[in-house]
């Protein structure tokens, strides 16, 4: 949420920063800005709109300089506008800052600073930080000390990057609750809120921890704790295995299409080395739990937000079905606020693609504080949630750039199927059933590719349904999380209102909304509820509603107004396969309506604010 880029080195900073912003734009895209030292002062250029709008403003000017900071914003305090875009400066124009996060005592700080005669130039919570740093500068010997002093007055979260016109060879950066990573080059340093902005320059990175501050120069960086005691911290650079090539569109028109198409390969990566054919189980070494500990798990609780939460619901269903252990899922954003009873024998699973979602991270911290055992199911290696959990399953989906999550969600479900298999096989799941699941997981990539091969037909169906204002997604039992995920995908990228219901619940109220204007997508797996789901379709049709059935059952084409057929795998894994056509349906509906599929309005990837 919001993207930060900084550079100090030997190249012209302007182009490094603009390119970095372009790669981070998925983190926020309502405004953008850049600041570089120029003639003893600062040159700040910012604009409402996309990074391209900023580029159009910056390129004709050409700011010469080898240090600079930049930002792409997702508004929290203050509407998207030129004046609210970052960087923000102090009144003298000497200090510029870019900030991710939320300053909770911003109103109080603003009132105090205004009382001291400071004039504010924006409505943001962030601007106060620039004024506080400027106020501290005369009383301190370094920029870092001034930033430290300012942060001592601030309550809230930040990923913060500071530029001082009087010290054009250094940048100061600090982290509390919002990610910051340093990229170490040869005589140059890169700073970003996300490795996406760094990987085309360097693979050597240092992740700042919460409560750390760093002074960064072209050939060195020094880290310490933010508090006044300023204890030096030792950071060993790590080499990340993500490459720039993984961020390339590779011939796809947009990242969403690429990431949907990538899924078979992503699933293969998630399965690699983890399926044990001999004992019909899974190897998940990252859990760091021996069979006795696995047997001792009394309950499994999945925690995540948005689509990660729906994947957790699917995980809970799989664990109950395969391992016969009570399992539930809950939005991490709610869990952390309801003073949960933490069961020391339960296994808590924190689910996150980005590994930075603030609510999920806070739930992990709350669990650990109460002695709960929590593992991560995280995609981004080195992310805050992965590091906080210390154990878990990496999703291996590869970088996900499009705001709507697709391949990470699929790999969450695949990982939970393996977790359920492992938990089941240390209990009473038979070897024969274990083998069925192992074989089913093995066949998933080909089944996914078979669905994707059907894309032209799904695109035609999407075009037929795209004029709807509202849609129902109907799925029962196993398919309920899939229905919710289908509705989520459609609403977030096409802006069509969509709700998920269990077929069994329709007649208890929602059926009143069915008419010729309200189509329903009904998930129709070939399972013990097939006849009941067919009855649901009849009930919808009898009220004039159009039905799109997604099915792997041997049902006639005229059972619904349109039918998408998907391959059979293993019934327990059907929800994973059924998710793929729903992604394609949402994608092509959004394209039909002319939406920006990678950057849906009002949203941003990686929600690092509350
Ligand atoms: C939906 C979507 C969001 C995320 C949610 C959690 O397509 O992308 O609902 O799933 O914000 O994000 P992570 O997984 O990064 O914690």
Question: Could you describe the 3D structure shown?
Answer:
It catalyses: D-fructose 6-phosphate + L-glutamine = D-glucosamine 6-phosphate + L-glutamate. Its main location: cytoplasm. β5 and β6 (about 95-100) form a beta hairpin. The protein has about 600 residues and is α/β, with parallel strands linked by helices. The chain has 19 helices and 26 strands. The model has no long low-confidence stretch (mean pLDDT about 95). The protein folds into three domains: about 5-245, Glutamine Phosphoribosylpyrophosphate, subunit 1, domain 1 (4-Layer Sandwich); about 250-445, Rossmann fold; about 455-610, 3-Layer(aba) Sandwich (Rossmann fold), CATH 3.40.50. The longest helix is centred in the C-terminal third of the chain and has 23 residues, at about 430-455. The strands form five sheets. The chain has an eight-stranded antiparallel beta sheet with strand order 3-2-4-1-10-9-11-14, with helices on one face. A six-stranded antiparallel beta sheet has the order 5-6-7-8-12-13, with helices on one face. Strands 18-17-19-20-21 form a five-stranded parallel beta sheet, sandwiched between helices. It is globular. Fructose -6-phosphate (F6R) binds near residues 308, 352, 360, 606 and 607.
């Amino acid at each position: 949420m919001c993207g930060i880029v900084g550079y100090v080195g030997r190249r012209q900073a302007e182009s490094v920063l603009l390119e970095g912003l372009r790669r981070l734009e998925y983190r926020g895209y309502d405004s953008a800005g850049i600041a570089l030292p120029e003639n003893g002062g600062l040159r700040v250029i910012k604009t409402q709109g996309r990074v391209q709008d900023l580029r159009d403003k910056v390129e004709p000017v050409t700011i010469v300089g080898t240090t600079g900071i930049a930002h792409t914003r997702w508004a929290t305090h203050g509407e998207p506008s030129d004046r609210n875009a970052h960087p923000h400066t102090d009144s003298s124009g000497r200090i510029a800052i870019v900030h991710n996060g939320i300053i909770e005592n911003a109103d109080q700080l603003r009132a105090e600073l205004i009382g001291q005669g400071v004039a504010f130039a924006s409505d943001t919570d962030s601007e106060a930080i620039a004024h506080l740093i400027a106020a501290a500068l005369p009383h301190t010997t370094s920029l870092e000390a001034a930033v430290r002093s300012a942060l001592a007055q601030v309550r809230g979260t930040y990923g913060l990057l500071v530029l001082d016109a009087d010290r054009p060879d250094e940048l100061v950066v600090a982290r509390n609750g919002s990610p910051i990573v340093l990229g170490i080059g040869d005589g140059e340093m890169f700073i970003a809120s996300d490795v996406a902005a760094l990987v085309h320059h360097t693979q050597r990175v240092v992740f700042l921890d919460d409560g750390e501050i760093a002074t960064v120069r072209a050939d060195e960086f020094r880290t310490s704790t933010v508090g006044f005691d300023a204890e030096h911290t030792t950071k060993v650079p790590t080499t990340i295995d993500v490459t720039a090539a993984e961020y390339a569109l590779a011939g796809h028109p947009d990242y969403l299409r690429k990431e949907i198409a990538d899924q078979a390969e992503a699933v293969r990566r998630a399965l690699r080395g983890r399926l044990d054919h001999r004992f019909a189980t899974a190897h998940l070494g990252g859990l760091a739990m021996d069979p006795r500990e696995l047997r001792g798990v009394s309950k499994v609780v999945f925690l995540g937000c948005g689509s990660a939460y729906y994947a957790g619901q699917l995980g809970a269903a799989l664990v109950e079905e395969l391992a016969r252990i009570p399992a539930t899922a809950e939005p991490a954003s709610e869990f952390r606020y309801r003073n949960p009873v933490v069961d020391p024998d339960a296994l808590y699973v924190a689910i996150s693609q980005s590994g930075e979602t603030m609510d999920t991270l806070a739930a992990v911290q709350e669990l650990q504080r109460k002695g709960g055992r929590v593992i991560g199911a995280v995609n981004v290696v080195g992310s805050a949630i992965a590091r906080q959990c210390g154990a878990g399953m990496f999703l291996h989906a590869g970088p996900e750039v499009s705001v709507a999550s697709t391949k990470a969600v699929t790999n969450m479900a695949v990982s939970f199927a393996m977790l359920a298999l492992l938990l089941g096989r240390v209990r009473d799941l038979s070897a024969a059933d274990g083998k069925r699941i192992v074989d089913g997981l093995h066949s998933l990539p080909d089944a996914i590719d078979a669905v994707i091969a059907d894309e032209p037909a799904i695109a035609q169906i999407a075009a037929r349904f795209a004029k709807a204002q509202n849609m129902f997604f109907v799925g029962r039992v196993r398919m309920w999380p899939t229905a919710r995920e289908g509705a989520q995908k459609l609403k977030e990228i096409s802006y069509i209102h969509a709700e998920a219901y269990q077929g069994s619940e329709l007649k208890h109220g929602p059926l009143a909304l069915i008419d010729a204007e309200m189509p329903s997508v009904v998930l129709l797996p070939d399972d013990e509820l097939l006849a009941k789901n067919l009855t649901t379709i009849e009930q919808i049709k009898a009220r004039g509603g159009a039905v799109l059935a997604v099915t792997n059952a041997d049902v006639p084409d005229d059972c619904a107004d349109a039918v998408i057929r998907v391959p059979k795998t293993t019934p327990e894994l059907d929800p994973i396969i059924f998710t793929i056509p729903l992604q394609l349906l949402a994608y092509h509906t959004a394209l039909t309506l002319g939406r920006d599929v990678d950057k849906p309005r009002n949203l941003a990837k990686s929600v690092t604010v509350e």
